[in-house]
Write a structure and sequence with these properties.
It is a single chain. This protein is 34% helix and 11% strand. With 176 residues, it is α/β, with parallel strands linked by helices. Helix 1 packs across helix 2 (59-68).
């Protein structure tokens, strides 16, 4: 049976404050974003049933996952960074850090970074900000999620990617 998948867009990060910050590479959450995570944690009704956490490997999505889903982390639920669910553009703010830097940033945190190839942050080939590549990554992500054995999965990703992942474009003509 296919799992229940809870889709979550990351909390506010520094690049969400102004377009001037879009030149920042892999920005972190703002204090308001951290508060949004705590609010989500207090209001999310399914903490007890979640048995896998999946996140985009960008700093803001990893932080959102660790803060908002601390109850799952505390009970040993695995947190996996999945490069297929990274953001869709090649702006610096939407480009992740290399695996070595992420391992250093989150060295004391329970995030599995083993699915990250060295080139995941290159924004070329499979990782390109082109419709065909994004659709292929989302198809791969859906297939990967479908074949997992867990019954309830949280995926923390990005607003733009969620349209491709769900194939829901209502009101989002600028992304098509």
């Amino acid at each position: 049976m296919a799992p229940i998948i809870h889709l979550v867009r990351h909390a506010q990060a520094v690049h969400n404050l102004t377009t001037l910050n879009h030149g920042m590479h892999d920005p972190a959450l703002t204090p308001h974003g951290e508060n949004q995570c705590l609010e989500l944690q207090s209001k999310f009704p399914h903490h007890d049933s979640v048995d896998l956490l999946v996140c985009s490997p960008l700093q803001r999505t990893i932080q959102t996952t660790l803060l908002a889903f601390d109850p799952e982390i505390s009970r040993g639920v695995q947190c996996v960074a999945l490069p297929e669910v990274q953001e869709t553009s090649d702006l610096p703010c939407d480009t992740g850090s290399n695996p070595a830097k992420l391992k250093d940033m989150f060295k004391d945190k329970p995030v599995d970074l083993t699915l990250l190839p060295e080139d995941w942050d290159s924004k070329v080939g499979k990782w390109a900000p082109e419709q065909e590549a994004i659709e292929r990554r989302c198809r791969d992500a859906r297939q990967w999620l479908r074949t997992r054995g867990e019954k309830a999965i949280v995926v923390v990703t990005h607003g733009g990617l969620l349209h491709y992942l769900t194939e829901d474009w209502a009101g989002c003509e600028e992304f098509q």
